[in-house]
Amino acid sequence: MYRLEVKNISKSFGKINAVKNLSFNCKEGEAVVLLGPTGAGKTTTLRCLAGLEELDNGDIYIDGKNINNFSPDHREVAMFFENYALYPHMTVYENMAYPLSAPSRKNEYNKKKINERVQEVAELLQISELLDRKPNQLSGGQKQRTALGRTLVRKPKVFLLDEPIAHLDAVLRHRMRGEMKSIFQKLECTVVYVTHDYKEALSIGDRILVIKKGELIQLGTADDIWSKMNNVFVAKLVGDPPINIYNGILHLGEDNLKIELKKQETNIVFKQEKAEKENLGKWKGKEVLFAIRPNDINISTTKKANSIKGTLAAIEAISSSYEISVYISEEKIFKVKSKINFADLLNKEIYLNIDSEKIHLFNPQNGESIYHGRSL
Amino acid sequence: MAKFEEKVEIKVNLKKVNKYYGKKREIHAVKDLSFYCRDKEFVAILGPSGCGKSSTLRMLAGLEEVNSGTIYFGDKEVSNTPPSERNVGLAFENYALYPHLSVYDNIVFPLRVRGATDEDIKNNKRLDELIELFKIDKSTLNSYPKALSGGQAQLTSLVRCLIREADVYLLDEPLSHLDEEMKVRMRTTLKIMHNKMKKTFIYVTHDQLEAFALADRIIIMNFGVLQQAGNPNDIYTKPVNKFVASFIGEPPMNFLNVHTEKEDSDLLIHGKSYKLPLPDRFKSKLKEDKKYILGIRPERVHVSPKNDLPELVLAKVDVFENLGEVNQLTMKLDDEVIITEIEPHKKFENGDDIYIHFDANHMHLFDADTLVCLDDKL
Fold this sequence. Notes:
The complex is a heterodimer.
Chain A: E1 4-13, E2 16-26, E3 31-35, H1 42-50, E4 57-62, E5 65-66, E6 77-80, H2 92-101, H3 111-124, H4 140-152, E7 158-162, H5 170-187, E8 191-195, H6 198-204, E9 207-212, E10 215-220, H7 222-227, H8 232-237, E11 244-252, E12 256-261, E13 267-271, H9 274-280, E14 287-292, E15 297-300, E16 307-318, E17 321-327, E18 333-338, E19 349-354, E20 360-362, E21 369-372
Parallel strand pairs in A: 3-8, 3-9, 6-7, 7-8
Antiparallel strand pairs in A: 1-2, 1-4, 4-5, 9-10, 11-12, 11-14, 12-13, 14-20, 15-19, 16-17, 16-19, 17-18, 20-21
Chain B: E1 10-21, E2 27-38, E3 42-46, H1 53-61, E4 68-73, E5 76-77, E6 88-91, H2 103-113, H3 118-122, H4 125-133, H5 138-142, H6 150-163, E7 168-172, H7 180-197, E8 200-205, H8 208-214, E9 217-222, E10 225-230, H9 232-237, H10 242-247, E11 254-263, E12 266-270, E13 275-277, E14 291-296, E15 301-304, E16 313-322, E17 327-333, E18 336-342, E19 353-358, E20 363-367
Parallel strand pairs in B: 3-8, 3-9, 6-7, 7-8
Antiparallel strand pairs in B: 1-2, 1-4, 4-5, 9-10, 11-12, 11-14, 12-13, 14-20, 15-19, 16-17, 16-19, 17-18
């Protein structure tokens, strides 16, 4: 039995279909991340799970029990919003104890039990020594942990988080991402987590649900989403700098497969086994989208097999590596991620060597995946 | 990064510049600031809010009075020269577009005031190039500033700045209102434009990623004081103090509290549960029985599941994150946290024992009181 089961849920606002026939489930202790751009329906989905929006269609089950008609406070879910509203006049302890001392829980928790639970969660969040402080005496990260703590004390069956760290500065966001993952694992929380940040999604999600215009696009592990993306939308959503994409024509040889890149002198050729050839047969001679991630390209000054000619237009330093922009046609830039600077080659002609085992091919009409390189 | 001939002209030079605000000059916004920009160089002034970076840029533009010190453009002192005589191109965070002019007319305004005819403007190649590169579409060109999003207004302002021929281009957070994806794209575009225009750019930002990506040289400020000036690689590998070290890098540098102890006449670095030999280059700089902070970048922390090398330090895996291109490992060493990046195919579980090797060549040590970096290389 699943901890959370979402079956064919739909929600529209007037003419806007925010969520369309969405289904997924969550095992106990599993973290599922909803990833998508603004307006994809992520927050609406979460609000439906929390009971803050009424479903137009579909069913939601927790531990096998249909909760469609349960009010938010009877769903045994806890929702954490981006703007954490701590009570300014209460201490950290009082803020955390508050959900347990609410009148509706009078019989569940006595003072001793409340104290035990608050101390337990505070220790886990490393805020035990801050329990007497007021929110205005806390740093951004400490406030965030307190707010998390207030949600965690209740032992909800499902923990819902909507962009919980999106507004933090880069350094703090980075640290909190790891901390949250660790807390979820230690408490064995069942989590549904909404974000537009692919790194957060890959990091936190045991599985990631990519959503676009209210529809499920792909549901899979971080490895699936990164290397076996099932369409070009997912490919573009995940990765920084984004994946390079270019139009080409597919040719099939005896034991090889060739992609003729438009307006380029070179072809990408790679060995091809029979089974794969059958799958690709219908694409013979047809136009495909060729894609390769910036870290799967090497730059050199000499032409090799599978290299694309270009002009090195800009070098941008990123921590210990470089993002290099290369014009491969008048208006098309390929991005390369490299440990080497290549400053000497600025504005010069260079070659991009493509690792043919790391390429992706997509259907140019509907964006669906056709092929993933063998070592992906 | 551009390469320079041996003899390079200094285009902009600040000498002991000070700026005060307030009736009694109680706010000392810029303190004895000296730095220079070479001709055709892209210099970023980087620092947190309130560090004096925008005040500095405004003094360069002539929009703020210099209270003491001098500014030179080439050989000419411009400290008291009005803005209009400095021949600088300006783009600020708050766009300052003319509300009664269309986007197109705003963009070509600097050309028109310098007497360009419609014919001249039509033949202006840079105009077409800028509009194309910064993705300003036809409908935007015909609309008026009030109809623009923050990002569109900012790009208009940036293009208006770049359209004119100036000696120095001064840009203050010109991409701050763009969404994340657009910001990264336009950053590259700006870098490409700089390579093409071959002019001196001074760029103010609080975003270390932006400064790193764009600049040939970076000026880092904090509390009105210059912290370090250097190319991105120097700033990254040889930070002069803990502020610079912690401000730069994603994921950030790891810091560990350590102290020194003598053992058989050798000075060793001690953590709670571990000790490490002190690399030679620190030997003259460190004292016995004193507290220090050990800094090491995530990519200089190597890990192994086995204790198969000398001088390994035992830690526990706290968080394992799969980030696609790399995996990130957060470890607990005693009660401190260490982050490292590992190759995608290596996987770890929470609570696993893990052995850490600190790359001694890339270890930094900071004085625990002054936070100054102690390294003979500096």
